[in-house]
Amino acid sequence: MPRQFAARHDRFALSRPFRISRGVKTAADVVTVTVSESGIEGRGEGVPYPRYGESVDSVLAQIESVTDAISGGATRTDLSALMPPGAARNAVDCALWDLEAKREGRTIAELIGAPVPTRIATALTVVIDTPAAMAEAARAIAAAPLLKVKVDAHDPAAAILAVRDAAPSAQLIVDPNESWDEALLRAVMPVLQDCRVAVLEQPVKAGDDGWLDTYDSPVPICADEAIHTIAELDVVAARYDAVNIKLDKTGGLTAALELAQAVQARGMRLMSGCMVCSSLGIAPALHIARLAEWADLDGPLWLAQDRPGGVSAEGGWMSPPAEGFWG
Q1: Of these residues, 102, 148, 246, 249, which one is catalytic?
Q2: Exposed e or buried b per residue across 41-51, where buried means at least 16 C-beta atoms within 10 angstroms of its C-beta
């Protein structure tokens, strides 16, 4: 019996606006893929990201282009030749992982020879607002072990200082989402040091970061938009101290595991990240998070309503989805 293969657009309203340097998001638009075989269904999710030239329509079109191949039995290892990295391949790859696990009666952890995901600390995000509003938001979650502070080029020092004052004990990730330039980074660096920032994530635009080759940063700098797959690792390793692995960039768990192993082999530090997504996008990422120094997987915590059986979180600690949800 041939496989049944389908993709659809799902929209999840957010409980509150998600503001970063690129704009404001009020809903998470995702593409959900299902692959069914002999009554067993695997699911996967991808988040189209305009920063990478993706839209819901373009991702659905990419998935449609491989319908015959997937229906005909193409495997995860075939995908790299069929699809480019990105949200479309992520959704298909993760659906095939889920199908494989259910078909074999084994967990994803067993398939990859790793421990079953357990509760992890995940960053809770403080989005861009006035310093006073960001302090108020940080104060409400100050007991969490890890906070991510979103900033732009408009007085980021004030925002970082306000969050640190409101949350004196939490580790901080500062994320400008490519909005700074070299001069601003150098100017803000003393504040990052004084505020004991654990890691600075993608401060300058990917492609305008060549000067980092010779910059000895006192705060670790993590590549996000600058790296998608293992193909960029040689260049990134010369400029950054850490790598943020997101499955929507690598094109699925298969490539993410490959990249994670390569990052670790180089002695670089690792972050596990996500887009604003449902728990179906987070369940596979938990297999990267177990390898990472920092997990930034609070995407589903911004949803007004997640998929049933998804992850749960309390005080910055995330527990895996219910048994049978994925993998």
Answers
A1: 246
A2: ebbbbbbbbee
